[in-house]
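Retro notes (design track)

What went well: tokenization of the new backbones is finally stable.
What didn't: we kept losing track of which sequence belonged to which structure.
Fix going forward: every design gets posted as structure first, then sequence, in one message. First example under the new rule, 312 residues:
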């Protein structure tokens, strides 16, 4: 009878492929380095091939090792999905959901929605992770996250998505800026006004570009790594920027000497929504969470269409 590797062997191989170091892979697997090393050797003996080349400083997976690690990862995801299906059937809305979100959403929305989610689904627990969209989607695809809360549009092929609410962009400038007193900003007023944005690997950058290109607005040479840095630069008169409503109502600009003004038109917005693996065994739970958050947002978050509160 053919000998089959067990799930422990597969998990060790996946951890080794990810960390490329026996010590780090062992730490991630919550075992000793000798235990993980012995497990990899058992796997190699069972398969009759070498999956890793060992050196004193690092480990390199062989070509067949890479192939097997990808297969092992897919099998472990299938097992996780099977367990999720069982959990869903035995006790819906229970257990832990690994939830990821992005820096331009998490700090401003999570403190508001997590208490509401805990009240609505008291048996659910959320393990939170913040990262850029690409990294979150990679972790989601590899089974290290269950659900992500991100901004759209974004390429999410192979995933189920649910939009929750729209989030308008607003023009932010120093209080001394010529447009600081304008009741509303038209895109034509931004021509020749270089706008500072987040760095290119932030989705907020890619979402703002079509708006700038449509109005022939220039992008400033300076870019920031975070919204707090961007706001500090604006307050110092180094330029203007676009900020999402969510960050503004979340207090991001509080205490800063900047003016915030609405922008005319319907193109000045992003959508905030959820995404999860299409084959996930907890899809129904995620849809119910999405339905709840959609209703919550209608009641708690001011729609992007309204003028909102602007300040000098």
């Amino acid at each position: 009878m053919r000998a089959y590797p067990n799930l422990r062997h597969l998990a060790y191989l996946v951890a080794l492929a990810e960390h490329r170091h026996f010590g780090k892979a062992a730490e991630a697997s919550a075992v000793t380095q000798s235990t993980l090393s012995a497990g990899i050797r058992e796997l190699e003996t069972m398969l009759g091939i070498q999956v890793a080349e060992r050196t004193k400083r690092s480990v390199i997976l062989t070509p067949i090792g890479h192939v097997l690690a990808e297969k092992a990862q897919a099998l472990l995801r299938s097992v996780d999905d099977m367990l999720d299906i069982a959990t869903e059937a035995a006790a819906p809305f229970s257990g832990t959901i690994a939830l990821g979100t992005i820096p331009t959403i998490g700090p401003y929305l999570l403190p508001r929605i997590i208490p509401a989610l805990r009240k609505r689904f008291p048996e659910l627990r959320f393990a939170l992770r913040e990262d850029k969209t690409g990294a979150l989607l990679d972790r989601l695809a590899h089974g290290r996250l269950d659900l992500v809360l991100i901004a759209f549009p974004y390429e999410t092929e192979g995933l189920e998505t649910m939009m929750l609410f729209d989030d308008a962009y607003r023009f932010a400038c120093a209080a001394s800026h010529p447009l600081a007193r304008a009741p509303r900003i038209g895109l034509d007023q931004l021509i020749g006004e270089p706008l500072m944005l987040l760095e290119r690997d932030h989705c907020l950058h890619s979402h703002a570009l079509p708006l700038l290109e449509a109005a022939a607005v220039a992008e400033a040479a300076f870019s920031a790594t975070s919204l707090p840095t961007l706001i500090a630069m604006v307050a110092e008169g180094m330029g203007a920027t676009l900020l999402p409503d969510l960050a503004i109502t979340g207090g991001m600009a509080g205490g800063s000497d900047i003016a915030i003004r609405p922008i005319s038109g319907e193109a000045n917005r992003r959508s905030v929504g959820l995404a999860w693996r299409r084959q996930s065994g907890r899809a129904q739970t995620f849809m119910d969470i999405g339905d709840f958050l959609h209703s919550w947002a209608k009641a708690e978050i001011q729609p992007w269409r309204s003028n909102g509160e602007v300040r000098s």
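Added context from the reviewer: Residues 26 and 107 are 32 Å apart (CA to CA).
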